[in-house]
């Protein structure tokens, strides 16, 4: 869910896609290479605020960008 307190589930990613989470200052928090299906991002321990999720497709092209909120 968005906003989240514990984490987010990113569905629809394919094997080879990279999912990245950035804080409001633009610092990369995590990067996960997908094996397909869904990617779990843990929000526990992150301060409340806005985050940017970027999904880079393994096939190339512009990344998908989404805003996430941690409460």
Q: Please, could you describe this protein's structure?
A:
This protein is mainly beta and 71 residues long. 0% of the residues lie in helices and 55% in strands. The protein contains no helices and six strands. The strands form two sheets. The protein has a four-stranded antiparallel β-sheet with strand order 3-2-5-6, with no helix packed on it. Strands 1-4 form a two-stranded antiparallel sheet. Strand 5 and strand 6 (64-70) form a beta hairpin. It starts with 6 loop residues before the first strand and ends with a strand. The mean pLDDT is 95.
Poorly predicted residue ranges:
none
Distance between the termini: 11 Å
- Read across the widest sheet, the strand sequence of neighbours is 3-2-5-6
Mean pLDDT: 95
Q: Report the order of strands and helices.
A: EEEEEE
Largest sheet: 4 strands, antiparallel
**Total number of helical segments?**
0
Helix content: under 10%
- Name the structural class: mainly beta
How large is the radius of gyration? Answer: 12 Å
Strand content: over 45%
Oligomer: single chain
The gross shape turns out to be: globular
Beta strand count: 6
């Amino acid at each position: 869910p968005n906003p989240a307190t514990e984490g987010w589930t990113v569905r629809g990613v394919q094997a080879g896609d990279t999912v990245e989470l950035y804080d409001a200052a633009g610092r990369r928090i995590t990067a996960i290479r997908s094996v397909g299906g869904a990617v779990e991002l843990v929000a526990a321990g992150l301060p409340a605020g806005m985050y940017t999720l970027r999904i880079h497709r393994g096939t190339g092209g512009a990344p998908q960008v989404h805003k996430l909120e941690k409460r």
